[in-house]
Amino acid sequence: MQRWNVDLNTTDWQTAPEASEVSAALLNGELVAIPTETVYGLAADATNGLACAKIFEAKGRPQFNPLISHVPALSDAREHGDFGPMSLALAEAFWPGPLTLVVPKKETSSISDLATAGLQTVALRVPEGPVMRFLSTKTGKPLAAPSANRSGKISPTRAQDVVADLESSLSFIVDGGPCEVGIESTIVGLTDAVPRLLRPGGIGRESIESVLGTTLQAAPSEMRQDAPSAPGMLESHYAPDAKVILNAQEASPSDALLSFGPDRLPGAESANAEFNLSKNADLKEAASRLFAGMRELDKSGANVIRVQFIPSFGLGEAINDRLRRAAAPR
Ligand code: TXA
Ligand code: MG
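^ thats the input. predicted complex w/ magnesium ion below
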């Protein structure tokens, strides 16, 4: 891991050689810790599914929570999400700043399915922190970044917190000193008729309500941050229409097959449709292709998707968590 010290009181850092090196690392699918005004983010190219898989692996996340994508300006955000009068008003009032807006994802958005956990919505933020905006501009990519801590630990507001937790996963840490806000952004959901407070954070509810001229409703229980394993969580994630059967021992001609690894199940060649998550049994590759694979098999029209055994170590735990949710009775 390399360290790049940035003095945010100047703009000298923007022309330092490290600016190009960090940008190249991001374009190469590597992970970089980047300060924002709220907390340090564990950033990757949001359009690169493999790079996003590395984020989940590094954090040791038991599930694929959707990630926030950071962009330099509202005009960039509008390439990825549909903004209505309320989301526009909030963006104009608070961006750049500690506010994240969850809006319907545009069909044409380049943000990977893994960054949005297969949802048809996308979380977008224009941070005040200049390094994140600068690197998004320089790479020309939205940057997916959750807080740069291992899952279950508290969010890092200083570079040394990040290094302690994640050093081995990082190509670079950009050290911009302590974060000013120190708590994560407020997340507002604008995907149904009423605006919802999905997570309290750096901007108070009252300020948001006064711009909207209406009160923020509570998050539906399945999206509540304080109840991450609530059973309803299922509904907030992409669920295929087809029934999902885990740990299949063989394929069936009428069913679709989600395979994994070099050893094909008996009967695989006659399956209705097949998608191999990773022929090399690489869990990172499998994670990056999971949502796309389920979507494609669902489109095949098969009533049942059979899933080959996937081991539960490393990213396999998150993959299996996601598959169990997809297989749960509905
Ligand atoms: O201040 C922040 O927001 C920091 C900095 C780095 O920007 N980032 C951050 O990310 O806190 P993270 O991953 O720790 O929290 C993102 C939360 C997720 O837990 C998820 O529940 C919510 O945002 N989220 C993301 N996309 C969503 C979506 N499409 N629908 C509902 N919630 C979403
Ligand atoms: Mg977090």
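The chain has two domains: 2-81+106-182, 243-327.
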